[in-house]
## 1
Amino acid sequence: MEDNQTTSFTISVDLYGHSPATARELPEPDIHVITSGALRIPAHASVLASVSPVLENIIDRPRKHRSSEKVILILGVPCDAVVAFVRFLYSSRCTEEELERFGIHLLALSHVYAVPQLKQRCTKALGERLTIGNVVDVLQLARMCDAPDLYLKCMKLVAGHFKAVEKTEGWKFLQDHDPWLELHILQFMDEAESRKKRSRRHKEEQRLYLQLSEAMECLEHICTEGCTSVGPHDTEPTKKKGPCSKFSTCQGLQLLIQHFATCKKRVNGGCLRCKRMWQLLRLHSSICDQSDSCRVPLCRQFKLRLQLDKKKDDARWKLLVRKVVSAKAISSLSLPKRKREELQETHNHGIGSFRLYN
């Protein structure tokens, strides 16, 4: 009882989050909030009702006896958490210390009594204070209190550190008392892993399409300007010819062209490297829109063959062509306007073939 009197005295001075002079200007309290520890917190019905629609309904509820005292029972949470809650209703302020000590309790109270400002603050504070040890408890509370942002943050932490989380007491309690939430967590982890795999696969595919797009640019570059060891058949090699800006790709393509030009197995179709070169030439023909003036070998022939052939390209090849065209467009947009114009001018030449430089 002595402890309650001491706490009540402190509340009378500091309850409303204002200075003592401001607090004295308020009318006499007309209602009391009673906690689990039998603490009586004086309050004003008009203030509580204006902030919380739930408290307003409780206050307006008819009493059994008109002479009975107006009280609101807030049970099941620490007395100091209720004090912090009532103080927030008056001042819209909550200290970091209170959030540290009573964040979970204040989130529950803000949800039950529909105080969105406090709920937002508690959600943010709890999200910043998540640990392996408390994440399961906060996750359960976030679900019950309809706090989706906090819930998702907890799920991501559990998924990212599951081996550590499953050793905690909170996880063991969850397994015994809430199997549906456990199942949902495991499903979330499975979906997250599937998303990661899809993302990795998509990045790998995009990287492949960009590499093919770059190979198409290098093929046009070799056939129109020439590079270090391969160039157009009607152009004399220059001794000062240096590596181009995409020499890593260009060099590999030049080696492939040199092999293609001299391979004995190519005629019989028994060389994998030659097949790869045929595919690159076919891919170029499929995306080239200037076949009449294109200097890449066999570009026009591939297009004529496609027109004469009754069987159209298969769906997978068409998809590949679209992806490479898209990658080429994205790559060209990243270039300066002058460079794009220079690339466009390289098409204005006659049909030719390769020359291997000595």
Note: The CA atoms of residues 6 and 35 lie 15 Å apart.
## 2
Amino acid sequence: MSLKLSPHGVQVTSAAFLSVSETPNEGSPPPAALINLPLANNGVDLSQLGPRGGSPQVQLTISGGSGNGSVTVPLAAPPGDRSRGWAQLECTAPNVLAYVLFGEREDTVVMIAYPGTLEFMSALPDDWSFGDVSLCGTHESSAQTGYFISKCQDRDVVTQLNEGVRVLDVRMRLSATGELETYHGIRPQYSTLKVYLDAIDAFLSAHPRETIMISLKEETPPDAPDFSKAVYDLLKTYGDRFVFTEHVPRLSEVRGKAQVMTRFGRKDNAPWSEGLGFHPNRWPDSVKEGFECDCNGTPVRISDWYGLDSAMDIPLKAEAVTQFLEHTTCCPPGSQISLAFSSAAKFPLATPQWVAKGVGAPTFGLGMHGVNARIVHWLLQQAVQGKRPRAVVMADYYDYTGSGEAGLGALLGAMNYVQQ
């Protein structure tokens, strides 16, 4: 019996078995029995361990790119964790994410060292295409109100960027006073496009080797004739911060900049002379198998099936997303850009929160795990194989995965440092 190890940029220097008593004396620390365990063949040999009481754990001593620390692996995981298929682990090493991936015969500890959520793109090669990077985006980035009907995010834009989100999806209407106000459908979100552009500008000033993409869309009806011009004029007030080129850029072209993605066309009063930015030439509605289109010669693949019949379709939605992402793990670098929307909703039987987070209390074995937890499970399986998606995952409630504090922003950023 063994505990498999899948380290990426991490070295495991020792392992020890630790059994913590469940019934310590009042006022005293729990007694522990420590047994050093041998490391062999990318794993920890557990064969010398017999049945143990208490809370059995394996403690791994590790060294990563930013320092040393330890990872604690429980050997008696709660049923809810096992039903999810994985759990995030306590890790004291800086900028190391650690998870356990549960298997039928043996479990695998996945550890990934990366620069952290603030600057994970900074160390990526300049010749990578933006489409080569594993990224987390937020679907309806401004939809922070509306309860079960229209709310899609718990975190504001500053927090989203700080937690690893690099693609924003902002939808607006042009008000009678000329303000670009954020909306989700007919529901106002009580913010403005300027708030989001200010946040991007401040973040990139502080982290000049990072890159952001912002998708801009008019929520219609109405179809305001001056919408396109209002967006363009506001973007131009930020100097050269926003990039309007109509191809998928290399990172060297957009360090410290934000690539514009438009989901609306030119109008006579807004020529967009530098280009409309990343601009897919079609976007069919809610196609389950996804679709392909073109961006100035670069193939674009998009999965945006959102019309679930009920929350019982959560497994089907997660499967559609991961099957779509599977293709990107083996496509040639620089060949395409892929966007997978993990979001879905159909009121009242499949709200955005239920789809993303799950239904009931799945951590306690009572309910169904959401799409986010299922995507994490798939990502960890890819990491064990030395693979990662070259894609953007556009998520609702990206910060919630069902276990631990690291959301999809952190894990997808770290996936760029998975070693083959």
Note: The domain at 130-415 is CATH 3.20.20.190 (TIM Barrel).
## 3
Amino acid sequence: MRRTLRARICLPALMALTTVGLGSSAAGAADTGANPSPGVAASPAQYALHTSLERDLGERTAGSYLDAESGELVVTVTDAEAAAEVRATGARAELVERNMAQLTAAMDTLESKAQIAGTSWGIDPSANKVAIEADSTVSAASMAKLRSVTARLGDAVSVTRVPGAFKKEVLGGDAIYGGGYRCSAAFNVSRGTARYFLTAGHCTNAASSWSATSGGPSIGTREGTSFPTNDYGIVRYTDGSQPAGDVNLYNGSHQDITAAADAIVGQSIRKSGSSTRLTSGTVTAVNVTVNYSDGPVHNLVRTTACSAGGDSGGAHFAGSTALGIHSGSSGCTGDSGSALHQPVKEALSAYGVAVY
């Protein structure tokens, strides 16, 4: 997974930062938005129900997803009483063999016995499994070790080899600069009258002061960073600007961002990035751990969006809803990618800020 450092700044009268996205090992084709996105659209009501039911059901669920055909919210449950609770809300209940605690226990086993650089794993509630990926750098010996561990976990897990490599990729060039790197900015956020932008933590680890041009004056100062384990950071604008809270769609228009939510497996997402511009994909797994060479990052979301070098730290979104901050990708084959994002709600909570 290549987590590339890059961002895009727009400078009208003062400066408005328009958000951009993601990074990977191979360029993906730009999506102008004219073609339908894969996956299905999630509604505000489904985001809210997804969150509340998973909280209320606890260990009696193994997560929820959107049905690819009907667009219904499907909530996995392990008993009839829980199924009745789900149906009472208008969602569809699906009885499954394993609950969240059992899937989490499988991931704990992988964490303790198979933490191999170049691997990642996360929960796919539509399959009621832990979906494991191993990139091209994982050796035969390491694959044998992984297979030995997963054999003991039975059909609670699946293993897939993926092309490319989970690793950082640092680029030079225009956009926002800090410490010799460039990064994509995810979302503009606020706390009171103060304005900030969120980006990847592996970006904010690299520098405390950020500029709109190489060697130019500082536009903002880092106020927080978290990587590895998490992958988010925050920069406060110090140049007096009041940037808009929108995302660049690369077709002459922008998408206003008014809310934030946790992504749902099966839903469609879009990614805006300064390298691959606007691409789209489907959410395929949540609670994902990726084992980078410099340490694991947990609780990510896996998607099929394409990305390329220079997109890291940017925006994953659906309509006017912010979903995540790009962390990385193992690459892109044709129009199929593997972009991962850090859930934005976690970063918003950590820093006490809000999208606007």
Note: Residues 156 and 165 are 25 Å apart (CA to CA).
## 4
Amino acid sequence: MPAHILQEISGSYSATTTITAPPSGGQQNGGEKFEKNPHHWGADVRPEIKDDLYDPTYQDEEGPPPKLEYVWRNIILMALLHVGALYGITLVPSCKVYTCLFAYLYYVISALGITAGAHRLWSHRTYKARLPLRLFLIIANTMAFQNDVYEWARDHRAHHKFSETHADPHNSRRGFFFSHVGWLLVRKHPAVKEKGGKLDMSDLKAEKLVMSRGVYYKPGLLLMCFILPTLVPWYCWGETFVNSLCVSTFLRYAVVLNATWLVNSAAHLYGYRPYDKNISSRENILVSMGAVGEGFHNYHHAFPYDYSASEYRWHINFTTFFITAWLPWAWLTIGRECPRPLS
């Protein structure tokens, strides 16, 4: 990266470091325990992000959990999607090379709509993007079809602030299946609705691009997530319709979903915790590979305002590479890096 860009980023805040080299301590010390990070509790952070930092004072109310209410529409649709995706796996050898490349490219762009868009830009405000990049990311987010940006960000802020409680939409204490996909198959816990409804979402409510979801989101997701990836291979290079539907659409979409869900499940249950052993989120390299950089999860929950979501920057983190790649064209301004954890 050009030196003037590094200076611009590192010079913006007195308590930051450059984005190139990992610290002398950290993960290289074999998971050495770091001192508790005061930023979890809202000390010395930007006021606008305090509402999505971990709140250790919140505790679940005592009493029996409410009865599960199954959302049968979601159960049936998810089952059909994964049956189509499994069939798509058997069709991959018969697909044209262009179809496989197109499906992979679509997967990467869709994933960036979640990781660089709904997550790091709109949920955590870790950087500021100008209109061309925001347009690209909201289109990519629509391709991913994981709820609109506003709902995704609201649930994610609740996940950070009330992590591993009933107010966490995908509470990993309820098991791998629930935190992976089960939370989408049942009605939300009353605590999720109550606490999520009290979060400060004024920043997103003020952004017309995000709040236009009521008009454009449903027709947009049908076009971008299902119709376009099915028709392009079929029409442009003569792929069979079944191959286009089951591989480019069903299989690709299922992979994007499960890669994202693994951040909620596997990255909260399997891995190591070098930054804060008092929280359940963990460093999981395999998740990071599938979720284009989102698997450094213990770090991310310790420092949610770092645009890189990892102390290693570009290492197994395509999302960070994508964000920083826009810098020379001045489409974005890095908002803040985190201070290094204390050894």
Note: The longest helix spans residues 97-123.
